[in-house]
């Protein structure tokens, strides 16, 4: 089956429609875990049946649930905050952005035993963007590829023509109805839902928001296997015309 390219639009209000019910679902799980464990510990303390090792394990589970909840809330706040207008654009070196994204996702790559093949041209490739937003967009897309790729590595490539940054994986790809839906808040693809990789469905919407804020276009090419996300930046323009 051939691949299809889709231009990705803004994910919209994270608190509208079905997104609000999905938000409740994402928050309910960690909160229920925290409440349940504290009730168990409270009953055992009241009965005088205390086991230090068991309490330590339960406290660790509470801490993990609280950390998961906090991370979700922080990403929701970021998604809401990035709905505002874009920031001032300036020349940004795409190579430096990609190197920073690789560093930011190193822990995830180690956890999933997956390498990142960084393919950079020998000379700097610059475009108009906001450095922080572009780096966040690349990091979110790269993190998503690392989590769901099937092969031993994912590819992060800088193209002087565009200029553009490309993130490619050999994962399961996206079916027709998923190609745009997974970029909506709290939505996850079938492979993500059926797999054992934790996620909230906020990484890709955040990538779209950060891309929009720095003036970059985002397109996704996918099919029955493999997905490629391409961020295209506005080229630098000098007094002599276009320059990349």
UniProtKB/TrEMBL annotation:
Pfam families linked: HATPase_c, HisKA
User: What are the record keywords, sorted?
Assistant: Kinase, Membrane, Phosphoprotein, Transferase, Transmembrane, Transmembrane helix, Two-component regulatory system
PROSITE patterns membership: HIS_KIN (PS50109)
Q: Which SUPFAM superfamilies match?
A: ATPase domain of HSP90 chaperone/DNA topoisomerase II/histidine kinase, Homodimeric domain of signal transducing histidine kinase
Keyword Metal-binding on this protein? no
GO MF annotations for this entry? phosphorelay sensor kinase activity
Top EC class for this record = transferase
Q: List, alphabetically, the GO terms of the cellular component aspect.
A: plasma membrane
Indicate yes or no for the key word Ribonucleoprotein.
no
User: Domain Histidine kinase, which positions?
Assistant: 22-237
Q: Which residues form a coiled coil?
A: none
Note the PANTHER family from the entry.
SENSOR HISTIDINE KINASE TRCS, SENSOR HISTIDINE KINASE YKOH
Q: Tell me what this protein is called.
A: histidine kinase
